[in-house]
């Protein structure tokens, strides 16, 4: 822990290969700019340029990685100052990059998965006449995401943070002709903005109390701050994380975000962007590791636990292929948040799970995309089924991802998730039992809904055979082209192997940033927990098989179901809550204010004018035209004047 | 008395060129095309001059530069004296940029019968000259004179070239501002009387008056402050004296709306900085809470009303009201970061909202209606236009990477230390901003094609038409001219988002000077730096 | 005998004149009432000059008479023209100009 | 009762008779007045002796020459006049700086007015009746409307009125003031009735103006009498002396003061003594209205200033509050009632009532600033008004001037020039900067504020904001409305009217942009108090 706090002191100036780090941002950004400005002219080669830039970035990232590994552990935190962005007296926001194990890990994940998904999209979007623009947006996203993880201060992070928000807005609303897509996009951006407010306020607090927003300074001075400030910043940062990572209470936008094309769901809403919250908290570990931050960490853990349960429960009830995966993502990120909430004991595991999840969840989504691609974009799993034979590669890769996710022994999920569960237990005391228990329960539920998904989509009877898709075409399922299968294969390999490899090396690799991994031993030994987890997952899977595997499934979802299912189908009433608490009152308030503005404020103004006019109209009647009345008014006036004069004098 | 430094000829030229231009254009109004050409030429020349002035300006130099001055009414110590500091210079540059664009945007507009393009552009150039004067005046009397005169061309621009309810809007605009101005006049005279009482001979020189008035007792300062504040609050406009703006914006032709929201309103916030803080430091501190409340109220109120509007131009007006809330907040939060933020906000708001208005104008030009309900799914027909609307919108919700982010960020982070509660409330405005921008974008650009004009162009109500065939018919995407008009704004919006330094450097010294005239110190000190007054 | 009574009398006459202007309709009569007011003033002028022991009050009275005479000339001319037009001298009939 | 006792008290002690100075009258100072009055008598002779067809040209020539000559005399005198001023005619006339300024103003304004009066191009034969004796509505009347003759008596009348005005604002004792008042009023009564068209209205205006005027001068005179009774003299200086230190009954003083001031306020058309103004302004022939609106106001306020500052200064704390009230009433009446007027001349009349309120503010401030600012305001207001009425006289239809506002709709399309000029004048009346109107308001408010009348100034500002509305209304009509189908035509004015309007506009602009010189004149000296 001490290592983490004075870590700011050890920041080196970037040199050698690292001096070109700006390429990471510029390459994709350049691609995006060219594609957007060139317009239709670029339709021919747009997708190629888009992919090339990202692959290039990936190549450079690998280079940088090896360059870094060649350094001593303490010199691995480097900064590259690009230019002074906003600098006024005591406030100096510089535009710089921080190259350290944590950011590099993310860079590799983003550019790696990003490249794969770019390649995948070439095939997936081939018949969309705006494919060029799609790639432009993807590039924009990659560049923003890289800025998010590479920035060397909270403001640069915020820049990337909102940048990815924009990209995700554009991509969710890709089918902008459809109202629901546009609405989903808007919803996503707004809920993210709510989180961003938290992040912004945290930044303001930092400036007020520490006079800077750069990591180096903030992490240096955070120890001297009062508990109140620390907890406040901690919780505000968490709010930001909740927004971006679809954590409770801001989880509602993520499932709707599935309105976007599947590659988007895979890249942004599964592998990378939604994990930014985890990054933020891990990045702020000098804060959360402080003993004063105890309460903040507890809140983080609670949010994580609650979210992972919510995700699982709702995931069990949905019939939409991608939405189930989305809720699965929600719950998996819940695991990660829970992990980083555990502090030094969990940061590494959080990141580990983040990486493995990056692999298998991306794979799962791509698989889903491939299925829908072959099924006229049919997303309702009740209308699928028995596709294993039709699209074997998809089936195999998807199954591998599935196994990894439910933590099948020695696949990547097994290492990462079990580690988190174990860490949760090792928190000790009632806390340990509660959070550990929840995590364990989550594992079971995950196995249940994922198995259900597997069965309904790939196994069982082909229910689609005598159905037509909504645009009236019959279904002709077929395997996708190599541009789509290749990435799936790569990711499948990753989801099989990554865990085993990473779980060994990751903790010490990340140590310079996250501090040494603190091994604590809870009531249960790791082996016990491992066995428990596998057992519970097996039970979950078994139940699922028992329920869905043996009987014929109806094509339309049964309406008469028990309350829990109804609740789950209604997102546990999360949307209803937002609706009731914010949306509707907001609309009412707006209507009321519009009324006030027209009738009240403006009405007053016009009222005064009308009043003057009216009184004028009435008063001019006094000008009767009779000379004698004029004389009278004069006499009255003079009497008044004289009376007044005398009164002033004698009174 | 008559101080003349290098480049004073420049300022004089900046003031006179548009006047000459107006005269020439009026002379040529018989022939539309030549008149238009002349107007454009003059406006561009003016912009070039503004750039030269910008280059000549030494941020490290004197408080007021390029000054020139001569007696006007000796009896009252009134001078015709002009000079610029960073703030004024920034505003003048923005005017110089916007006017050519406005002229370019209005190139093909249909005017009410009997009106000539020449007259229209001449009035715009005249307005430009007057606004430049207002920002550059360093004699309070002169400032007041220009402040009032400024109303007249705008009155005619709205009244004779505006929409259906233009008479109402024009008169409302004029009376509102005129009343504010008169109340300010009382304070102006009050300051003069103070000067006479203190050192025998009265003067209206800003620098002199600052010396005199800033030492006056609190009681006096508050009264004088309120007089000025009334005028500036109406001009800015702050809630609750804002209701003239929606009407004026809704009725004014697009180009005029740009000038109105983009430039004229800035005079109010400029006045806060140039007159309220330096002249009435005590009163400013005393009454800061009042202003802050109005400011924050403006942010929330304006944003919520924006979401409630049915008319796009009224919508724009309320958006600006919200933004002016931010600006006022930054000025009265009394920290150099916030104040610099406010000044850059004045610049950026002109660019962002200016572009937003121009784009909306192009939308209206195609759809033939300013009601939001008459649009939908337009992005399919006019993707570039949609992109432009989105860029302008993103900037006005101050997304990082756009110019407005820098200013809004500075305002908020600078205001937080002194006024945390107000800042937190204002931060909610960020969410609302996203709400109203995206709401407009969705209603107009996304979803199925709606609205008679659009459906007519697309063929069949709400059908997903292939733009390749659908758009070509009635509704064309941006023309080369329109692209040319918007291009500079896009470049600046994004460029200043990444490299705000040029603006910040010019503005900061002026803000420092203002801060220390008002005897204000930064809440967050970096230690080594001390404010020293120039 | 004190001159005060003359003052009171003149005040009374002045008031009568003023009231007359207000209540009478015929232009001639109204005008006569004005003359009455002027002469009331004359009375008080003379009285005051008696009180102050100077002559100028009395001289002023002569001035006033001359002026009054001039007024009569102008006034009657105007009233005549009205009368010839409308066949009536009632001031209430001429109220085309109003509001 | 208190009156009684005080008078008794007064009866006991014998005030010494006012000393009569017996030095020869220095005429150099009062040449302008003598010239004007002399010329007036001469032109009466012209009327008597000259054949009808020659009269017009002779009269015009004579009048213009007179004004010019008086002006020259004035200028030559000013160049070497004693700064403190001097008295003339056995001390009945005080020829001091303000008086000279007012004389200059009056001469200049009346020049403009005379040009309007003399014009025969706008209305064939001029806007005055051919034979005043003809009954309206008869065949002869229609004939005289068609004819080109005019009642040239208007010229001597103008000169007499002018002479009266000049005397009025130089009068050093109340009796002179009263006589001057009548000399300026009686001709005006007559001139009001001399319109060529709309004779009924014209005559009615004359009657109303005459009756009310006479009524008012009766008040004025009674005031004089009471003050005489109080001070034992009608000399302003003596009254001031008496008021400053004496144990005599203040009842006389204040009653007298009240009546006197009412008489003056009536002439100045200050509310609530304004009731005659709208009717008379509307009914009188427009050139005469211009003459009245400009010159009478100047003269009346000249008198008010002199009385308040010379005679009543020591009692200002008593009357100031009262006049505050009067000023406010006047401004409010003018501003509010003007809002709904439908006749241009009537509207300007109410505007003049409002302006009278502003002027009164300046006069209440019994300081040198107050004096000079009011003088300046009078100058600016006079010229703007002359030009305004000049423009109004140009908008005509078959039945004469088209003064109804609805007829002015869309005038800018018919005649941009006229609309532009009129807009400029209206903005001047509204007090927009770069017009003389603004500078005038500015100096007056400045004087008022520095004399501690803040609230009054604020009221004034609000009032002028309200008043701005009805000026704007006309501009809106002219520019933003569609012209009426059978709208009026704009006659091309002849040399005279053109000259008058140009004079007014140029001065309005000049005083708006470079008021320095005029301000210096106005503040070059104060009343000579002897």
Automatic annotation (TrEMBL), chain C:
What is the role of the protein in this entry? Answer: NDH-1 shuttles electrons from NADH, via FMN and iron-sulfur (Fe-S) centers, to quinones in the respiratory chain. The immediate electron acceptor for the enzyme in this species is believed to be a menaquinone. Couples the redox reaction to proton translocation (for every two electrons transferred, four hydrogen ions are translocated across the cytoplasmic membrane), and thus conserves the redox energy in a proton gradient.
Query: Is Transmembrane helix among this UniProt entry's keywords?
Result: yes
| PANTHER family named among the record's database cross-references | NADH DEHYDROGENASE SUBUNIT 4L-RELATED (PTHR11434:SF21), NADH-UBIQUINONE OXIDOREDUCTASE SUBUNIT ND4L (PTHR11434)
Enzyme Commission number, as recorded: 7.1.1.-
- BP term (GO), one: ATP synthesis coupled electron transport
User: What NCBIfam families would the database entry show?
Assistant: PRK05715.1-2, PRK05715.1-3, PRK05715.1-5
Q: Which reaction does it catalyse?
A: a quinone + NADH + 5 H(+)(in) = a quinol + NAD(+) + 4 H(+)(out)
Record protein name field:
NADH-quinone oxidoreductase subunit K
Task: State how it assembles.
Answer: NDH-1 is composed of 14 different subunits. Subunits NuoA, H, J, K, L, M, N constitute the membrane sector of the complex.
HAMAP family in alphabetical order? NDH1_NuoK (MF_01456)
Keyword annotations for this protein, in alphabetical order, are: Cell membrane, Membrane, NAD, Quinone, Translocase, Transmembrane, Transmembrane helix, Transport
Transmembrane region positions? 6-23, 28-48, 60-83
Family of this protein: Belongs to the complex I subunit 4L family.
Annotated InterPro entries:
NADH_UbQ_OxRdtase_chain4L/K, NUOK/Mnh_C1-like
The protein's predominant localisation is: membrane
* Membrane-topology annotation of the record: Multi-pass membrane protein
Cellular component GO terms, alphabetical: NADH dehydrogenase complex; plasma membrane
């Amino acid at each position: 822990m001490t290592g983490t706090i004075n870590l700011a002191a050890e920041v080196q100036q970037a040199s050698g290969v690292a001096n070109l780090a700006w390429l990471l941002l510029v390459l994709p950004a350049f691609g995006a700019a060219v594609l957007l400005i060139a317009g239709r002219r670029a339709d021919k080669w747009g997708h190629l340029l888009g992919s090339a830039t990202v692959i290039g970035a990936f190549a450079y990232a690998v280079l940088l990685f090896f360059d870094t590994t060649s350094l001593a552990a303490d010199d691995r935190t480097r900064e590259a100052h690009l230019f002074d962005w906003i600098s006024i007296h005591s406030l100096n926001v510089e535009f710089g990059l921080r190259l350290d194990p944590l950011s590099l890990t993310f860079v590799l994940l983003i550019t790696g998965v990003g490249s794969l998904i770019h390649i995948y999209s070439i095939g997936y979007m081939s018949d969309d006449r705006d494919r060029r623009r799609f790639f432009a947006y993807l590039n924009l996203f990659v560049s923003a995401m890289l800025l998010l993880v590479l920035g060397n201060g909270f403001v640069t992070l915020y820049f990337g943070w909102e940048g990815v928000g924009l990209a995700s807005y554009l991509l969710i609303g890709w089918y902008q002709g459809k109202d629901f897509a546009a609405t989903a996009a808007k919803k996503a951006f707004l809920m993210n903005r709510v989180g961003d407010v938290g992040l912004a306020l945290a930044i303001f607090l930092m400036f007020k109390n520490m006079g800077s927003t750069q990591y180096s300074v903030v992490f240096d001075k955070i120890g001297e701050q009062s508990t109140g400030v620390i907890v406040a910043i901690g919780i505000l940062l968490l709010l930001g994380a909740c927004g971006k990572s679809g954590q409770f209470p801001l989880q509602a936008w993520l499932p709707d975000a599935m309105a976007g094309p599947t590659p988007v769901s895979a890249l942004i809403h599964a592998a990378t962007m939604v994990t930014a919250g985890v990054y933020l908290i891990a990045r702020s570990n000098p804060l959360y590791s402080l003993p004063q931050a105890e309460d903040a960490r507890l809140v983080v853990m609670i949010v994580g636990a609650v979210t992972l349960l919510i995700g699982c429960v709702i995931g069990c009830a949905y019939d939409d292929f991608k939405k189930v995966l989305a809720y699965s993502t929600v719950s998996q990120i819940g695991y990660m948040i829970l992990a980083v909430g555990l502090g030094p004991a969990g940061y590494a595991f959080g990141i580990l799970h983040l990486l493995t999840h990056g692999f298998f969840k991306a794979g799962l989504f791509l698989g889903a995309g491939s299925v829908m691609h072959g099924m006229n974009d049919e997303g309702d799993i009740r209308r699928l089924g028995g596709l294993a034979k039709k699209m074997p590669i998809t089936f195999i890769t998807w199954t591998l991802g599935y196994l990894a996710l439910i933590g099948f022994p020695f696949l990547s999920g097994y290492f990462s998730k079990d580690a988190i569960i174990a860490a949760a237990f090792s928190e000790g005391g009632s806390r340990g039992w509660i959070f550990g228990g929840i995590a364990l329960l989550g594992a079971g539920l995950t196995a249940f809904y994922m198995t259900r998904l597997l069965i309904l989509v790939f196994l069982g009877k082909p229910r689609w055979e005598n159905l037509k898709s909504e645009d009236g075409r019959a279904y002709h399922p077929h395997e996708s082209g190599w541009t789509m299968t290749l990435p799936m294969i790569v990711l499948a390999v990753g989801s099989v192997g990554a865990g085993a490899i990473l779980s060994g090396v990751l903790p010490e690799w990340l140590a310079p940033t996250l501090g040494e991994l603190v091994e604590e031993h809870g009531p249960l030994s790791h082996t016990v927990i491992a066995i428990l987890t596998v057992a519970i997952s097996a039970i979950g899977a078994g139940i699922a098989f028992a329920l869905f595997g043996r009987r014929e499934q109806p094509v339309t979802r049964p309406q008469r179901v028990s309350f829990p299912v109804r609740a789950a189908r209604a997102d546990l009433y999360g949307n209803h809550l937002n609706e009731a608490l914010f949306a509707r009152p907001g609309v009412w308030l707006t209507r009321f204010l519009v009324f006030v503005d027209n009738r009240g404020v403006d009405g007053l103004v016009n009222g005064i004018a009308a009043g003057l006019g009216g009184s004028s109209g009435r008063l001019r009647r006094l000008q009767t035209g009779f000379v004698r009345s004029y004389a009278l008014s004069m006499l009255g006036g003079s009497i008044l004047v004289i009376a007044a004069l005398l009164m002033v004098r004698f009174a | 008395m008559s101080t003349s430094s290098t480049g004073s000829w420049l300022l004089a030229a900046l003031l006179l060129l548009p006047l000459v231009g107006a005269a020439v254009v009026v002379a040529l109004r018989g022939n539309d095309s030549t008149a238009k050409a002349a107007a454009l030429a003059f406006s561009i020349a003016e912009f070039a001059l503004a750039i030269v002035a910008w280059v000549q300006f030494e941020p490290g130099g004197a408080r007021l530069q390029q000054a020139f001055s001569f007696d006007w009414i000796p009896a009252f110590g009134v001078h015709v004296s002009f000079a610029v500091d960073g703030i004024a210079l920034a505003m003048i540059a923005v005017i110089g940029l916007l006017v050519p664009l406005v002229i370019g945007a209005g190139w093909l507009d249909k005017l009410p019968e009997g009106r000539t393009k020449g007259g229209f552009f001449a009035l715009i150039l005249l307005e430009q000259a007057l606004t430049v004067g207002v920002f550059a005046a360093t004699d309070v009397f002169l400032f007041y004179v220009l402040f009032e005169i400024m109303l007249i061309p705008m009155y005619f621009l709205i009244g004779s070239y505006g929409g259906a309810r233009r008479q109402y809007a024009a008169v409302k605009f004029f009376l509102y501002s005129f009343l504010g101005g008169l109340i300010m006049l009382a304070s102006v005279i009050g300051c003069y009387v103070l000067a006479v009482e203190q050192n025998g001979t009265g003067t209206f020189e800003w620098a002199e008056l600052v010396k005199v008035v800033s030492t006056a007792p609190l009681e006096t300062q508050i009264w004088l402050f309120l007089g000025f504040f009334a005028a500036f609050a109406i001009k800015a406009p702050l809630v609750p004296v804002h209701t003239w703006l929606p009407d004026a914006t809704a009725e004014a032709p697009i180009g005029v709306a740009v000038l109105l929201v983009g430039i004229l309103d800035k005079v109010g916030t400029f006045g806060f900085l140039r007159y309220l803080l330096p002249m009435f430091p005590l009163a400013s501190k005393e009454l800061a809470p009042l202003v802050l409340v109005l400011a924050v109220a403006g942010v929330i109120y304006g944003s919520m009303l924006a979401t409630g509007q049915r008319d796009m131009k009224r919508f724009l007006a309320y958006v600006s009201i919200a933004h002016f809330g931010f600006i006022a907040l930054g000025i009265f939060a009394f920290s150099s970061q916030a104040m610099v933020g406010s000044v850059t906000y004045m610049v950026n708001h002109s660019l962002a909202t200016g572009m937003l208005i121009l784009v909306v104008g192009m939308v209206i030009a195609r759809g033939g209606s300013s009601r939001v309900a008459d649009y939908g799914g337009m992005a399919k027909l006019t993707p570039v236009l949609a992109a432009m609307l989105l860029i302008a919108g993103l900037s006005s919700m101050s997304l990082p990477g756009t110019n407005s982010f820098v200013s809004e960020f500075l305002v908020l982070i600078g205001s937080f230390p002194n006024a945390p509660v107000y800042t937190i409330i204002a931060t909610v405005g960020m969410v609302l901003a996203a709400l109203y921008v995206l709401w407009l974008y969705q209603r107009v650009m996304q979803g199925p094609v709606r609205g008679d004009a659009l459906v007519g162009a697309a063929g069949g109500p709400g059908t997903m038409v292939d733009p390749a065939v659908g758009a070509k018919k009635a509704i064309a995407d941006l023309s080369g001219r329109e692209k040319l008009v918007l291009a500079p704004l896009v470049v600046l919006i994004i460029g200043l988002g990444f490299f705000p330094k040029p603006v910040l450097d010019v503005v900061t010294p002026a803000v420092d000077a203002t801060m220390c005239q008002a005897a204000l110190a930064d809440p967050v000190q970096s230690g080594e730096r001390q404010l020293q007054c120039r | 005998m004190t001159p005060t009574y003359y003052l009171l009398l003149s005040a009374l006459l002045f008031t009568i004149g003023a009231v007359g202007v207000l209540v009478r309709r015929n232009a001639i009569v109204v005008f006569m009432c004005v003359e009455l007011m002027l002469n009331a003033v004359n009375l008080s002028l003379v009285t005051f000059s008696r009180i102050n022991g100077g002559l100028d009050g009395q001289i002023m009275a002569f001035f006033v008479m001359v002026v009054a005479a001039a007024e009569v000339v102008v006034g009657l001319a105007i009233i005549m023209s009205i009368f010839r037009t409308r066949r009536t001298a009632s001031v209430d009939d001429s109220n085309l100009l109003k509001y | 009762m208190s009156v009684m006792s005080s008078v008794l008290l007064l009866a006991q002690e014998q005030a010494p008779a006012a000393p009569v100075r017996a030095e020869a009258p220095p005429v150099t100072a009062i040449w302008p007045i003598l010239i004007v009055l002399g010329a007036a008598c001469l032109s009466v002779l012209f009327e008597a002796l000259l054949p009808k067809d020659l009269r017009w040209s002779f009269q015009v020539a004579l009048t213009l020459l007179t004004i010019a000559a008086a002006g020259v005399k004035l200028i030559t005198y000013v160049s070497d006049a004693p700064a403190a001023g001097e008295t003339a005619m056995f001390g009945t006339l005080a020829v001091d700086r303000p008086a000279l300024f007012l004389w200059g103003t009056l001469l200049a304004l009346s020049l403009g007015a005379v040009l309007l009066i003399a014009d025969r191009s706008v209305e064939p034969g001029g806007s005055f009746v051919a034979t005043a004796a003809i009954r309206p509505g008869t065949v002869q009347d229609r004939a005289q409307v068609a004819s080109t003759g005019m009642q040239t008596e208007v010229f001597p009348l103008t000169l007499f009125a002018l002479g009266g005005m000049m005397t009025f604002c130089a009068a050093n004792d109340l009796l002179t003031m009263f006589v001057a008042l009548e000399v300026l009023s009686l001709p005006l009564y007559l001139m009001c009735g001399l319109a060529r068209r709309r004779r009924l209205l014209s005559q009615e205006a004359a009657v109303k103006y005459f009756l009310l005027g006479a009524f008012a001068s009766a008040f004025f005179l009674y005031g004089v009498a009471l003050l005489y009774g109080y001070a034992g003299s009608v000399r302003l200086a003596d009254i001031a002396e008496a008021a400053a230190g004496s144990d005599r009954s203040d009842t006389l003083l204040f009653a007298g003061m009240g009546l006197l001031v009412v008489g003056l306020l009536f002439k100045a058309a200050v509310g609530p003594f304004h009731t005659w103004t709208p009717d008379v302004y509307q009914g009188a022939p427009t050139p005469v209205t211009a003459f009245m609106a400009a010159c009478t106001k100047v003269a009346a306020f000249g008198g008010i200033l002199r009385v308040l500052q010379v005679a009543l200064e020591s009692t200002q704390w008593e009357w100031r509050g009262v006049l505050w009230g009067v000023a406010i009433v006047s401004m409010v009446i003018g501003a509010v009632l003007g809002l709904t007027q439908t006749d241009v001349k009537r509207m300007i009349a109410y505007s003049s009532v409002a302006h009278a309120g502003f002027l009164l503010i300046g006069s209440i401030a019994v300081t040198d600033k107050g004096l000079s600012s009011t003088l300046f305001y009078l100058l600016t207001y006079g010229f703007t008004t002359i030009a305004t009425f000049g423009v109004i006289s140009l908008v005509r239809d078959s039945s004469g001037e088209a003064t109804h506002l609805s007829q002015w709709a869309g005038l800018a399309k018919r005649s941009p020039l006229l609309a532009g000029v009129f807009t400029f004048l209206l903005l001047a009346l509204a007090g927009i900067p770069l017009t003389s109107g603004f500078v005038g308001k500015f100096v007056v408010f400045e004087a008022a504020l520095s004399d501690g009348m803040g609230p009054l100034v604020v009221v004034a500002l609000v009032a002028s904001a309200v008043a701005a509305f009805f000026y704007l209304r006309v501009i809106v009509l002219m520019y933003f409305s569609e012209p009426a189908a059978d709208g009026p035509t704009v006659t091309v004015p002849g040399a005279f009217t053109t000259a008058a309007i140009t004079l007014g506009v140029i001065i309005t602009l000049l005083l708006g942009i470079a008021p320095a010189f005029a301000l210096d004149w106005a503040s070059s000296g104060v009343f000579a108090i002897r």
